Amino acid sequence: MTKPVGEYISIIAARSTDKEILERSQDGGIVTAAYIYGLENGLLDGAIVADTTKGFKPVPKIARTRAEILSARGTKYSLSPNMSVVKDAVKEYALEKVGFVGTPCQIIAMRKMMQYPAAFRQTAGNIGLIIGIFCMENFPYNAMKTLIEQYARIDMDDVLKTDIGKGKLFVYKKDGSEPVTIPIKETVPFEQKSCHICMDYTSEYADFSTGSVGTPDGWSTVIIRNQRGKDFIDKMIAAGKLETQPVDMEGKLGMPLLEKLSVDKKTKNAKEIEHRIEMGLPVPY
């Protein structure tokens, strides 16, 4: 029987041991730590990440240095079209081992591209690591802009980072002041509609997936899904780049919560898919 969070080899709690990475990273800084480790140890030539431009707007970026990886730290809740630069990373930048990070829908797209390359010929073999992030829903950029500027009363140019947890959207300012919060129930009308038919919460097709659910503040849950992901994480741990601890497999806020959220998304969105089919609307499943 398929596991609620998809197939995996093991699940751990982890965080970077690099203080610079943790300064502005989300939770344990796993994605940033992995890509910097990969670049500095010849496991990757570069990575496709989501960086922010003026107005805290996420854009895909081909990062090839530690500084470029660090500049892209933190979760953005507006989708960055990272798939759009995969061919550029291989064809224009001549990268042979590319790291890719994305939401569940983007990870599914990446795996489909690798299985059925078509326009991505001579590209699929250059993907060196696929990291997925946990995602319940996302927001179009203009919707997020409305939420932050009208609800939180913060100019987008002043935003340092955003976070979702404990039933709230947290908006952090560059001036270091206390974050402004927006109740999640207020954000629902602004969600991207395609998210309501997505059946994947934990990026089940990544080499390894990561997110904050299931671990204490400052740590990240890491779901190691295949041998490539395991080898990469094992090397990071052996090199002292990650500290780890077991995930609570029984406690209310540990693995049971992660499984509950995953099942809740599948159940809720399966009903939405049925509804759209009944209405004669197209769905990608």
Structure description:
The chain is α/β, with parallel strands linked by helices and 285 residues long. The protein has two domains: 10-138 and 197-279, no CATH class; 139-191, Nuclear Transport Factor 2, Chain: A. The chain has helices at 19-22, 30-40, 66-71, 86-91, 104-115, 141-151, 184-187, 227-238, 255-278; strands spanning 10-16, 46-52, 58-63, 98-102, 127-133, 159-165, 168-173, 180-183, 208-211, 220-224, 242-246. Strand 4, helix 5 (104-115) and strand 5 (127-133) form a beta-alpha-beta unit.
Short description:
With 285 residues, the chain is an alpha/beta fold.
Task: Summarize the topology.
Layout: E1 10-16, H1 19-22, H2 30-40, E2 46-52, E3 58-63, H3 66-71, H4 86-91, E4 98-102, H5 104-115, E5 127-133, H6 141-151, E6 159-165, E7 168-173, E8 180-183, H7 184-187, E9 208-211, E10 220-224, H8 227-238, E11 242-246, H9 255-278
Parallel strand pairs: 2-4, 4-5, 5-9
Antiparallel strand pairs: 1-10, 1-11, 2-3, 6-7, 7-8, 9-10
